[in-house]
Amino acid sequence: MKMVFAIISKSDEDITVSALNEAGFFATKLSTTGGFLKKTNTSIIIGVEDDKVDAVLDILKKYAGKRIDEMPYVAPSMARSHNGVGAPYVTVPTSAGGATVFVLDVTSFEKF
C-alpha cells in the first residue's frame, strides 16, 4: 500500500478531489500555506494500493498539473485614463497550477 501526499493549488482543489472521488479514490484535504509568498494550497492525502498509484498520479497531473492560462492585463496608463472602467485589455500567458507529490510506502493501515 502507498500513501500519495499531494500539495496542489487551492484553485485546483475542487475539480481534482471530484475527479479522484469519481475514479473511486478517497482523499483527505488539508488547508496549507506555502512558505514562499504565503500562498494558500491544499494538501491531499490518498491511501491507495500499489497498482493504483499511476491512476492517482494521472488524475493529479490532469487536474492540478502545471499549465498556461490566459490572464487579462490592463496597462496602468490605460487603467488611469479610463478610471479603471472599460479599459481595453489584452490577455497574457501566465503559469498556473502545479503539484508537489510524494508517494510513500505504508507499512500498516487500520480503519476503525
From TrEMBL:
Organismal lineage: Bacteria, Pseudomonadati, Spirochaetota, Spirochaetia, Spirochaetales
Keywords recorded for this protein, A-Z: Receptor
Key word Chaperone present: no
Annotated signal sequence range: none
tRNA processing is among the record's keywords: no
Organism of this sequence: Candidatus Aphodenecus pullistercoris
InterPro entries noted in UniProt: CdAMP_rec, N-reg_PII-like_a/b, N-reg_PII/ATP_PRibTrfase_C
Domain of life: Bacteria
The name this protein goes by in its record: Cyclic-di-AMP receptor
